[in-house]
Design brief:
Layout: H1 2-16, H2 18-24, H3 37-58, H4 60-68, E1 71-95, E2 101-126, H5 129-138, E3 140-142, E4 148-149, E5 165-171, E6 174-177, E7 184-188
Antiparallel strand pairs: 1-2, 2-5, 2-7, 3-7, 4-6, 5-6
Helix pairs in contact: 3-4
Length: 194
């Protein structure tokens, strides 16, 4: 029984390790190389375009914030929970004035009860170019947050710029405003920006 419990903890730590998931997009598998940097950027751009279109279609409030924003970012994430939780993903931050795209990565970790996986996209709007530049150059660590489920139609979704950033989350259940991102760190993906 102790061996089984020990094995479950080890497996849980491995699956929940944010570093393992965040670094996964940069790892090489055997003698095969993963997709080229250009292919990865193209896939990130495709996901970002689809997520941005979805949120702008489903939420008038998000559309209004997007119009006011100096820039935006979209991250495609996977979170695994098995005693501990962890996850990672990649994304792109875009300066609306210049069109410049900066590719980034994210990692998350914490303690959670249950077993499962969740795939979701996080969409951020930045009120000023300075706020966007700080996010890109210095990264960002989300310490707290509150979920506000809006359902599949996004009815009644409302958020605003809080400390210069408005955050939305799209899950299988629909659009969420002011998404809970606590324990999540965003940083520059140097390999994809070469």
């Amino acid at each position: 029984m102790k061996k089984l419990l020990s094995l479950m903890i080890v497996v849980g730590l491995f699956l929940a390790s944010p570093a393992a998931w965040a670094a996964g997009d940069e790892a090489k598998s055997g003698s095969k190389k993963e997709a080229s940097a250009a292919e990865k950027r193209a896939e990130i751009d495709k996901v970002a375009k689809e997520a941005l279109a979805e949120i702008l279609e489903k939420s008038d409030k998000a559309r209004g914030l997007y119009e006011k924003a100096a820039g935006w970012a979209v991250f495609d994430n996977l979170r695994i929970t098995f005693i501990l939780s962890g996850g990672g993903g990649t994304g792109v931050a875009v300066n609306k004035a210049s069109g410049k795209r900066t590719y980034m990565k994210m990692g998350t970790g914490g303690i959670a009860f249950g077993i499962g996986a969740q795939k979701y996209q996080v969409i951020m709007f930045f009120d000023t170019e300075e706020r966007l530049t700080n996010f890109i150059e210095k990264g960002w660590k989300a310490e707290t947050g509150a979920d506000a489920a809006a359902g599949t139609k996004g009815a009644g979704v409302g958020t605003e710029f809080i400390n210069g950033i408005a955050v939305y989350k799209i899950t299988e259940k629909g659009l969420m405003a002011s998404a809970d991102l606590s324990g999540t760190k965003y940083s520059l993906n140097k390999k994809l920006n070469k």
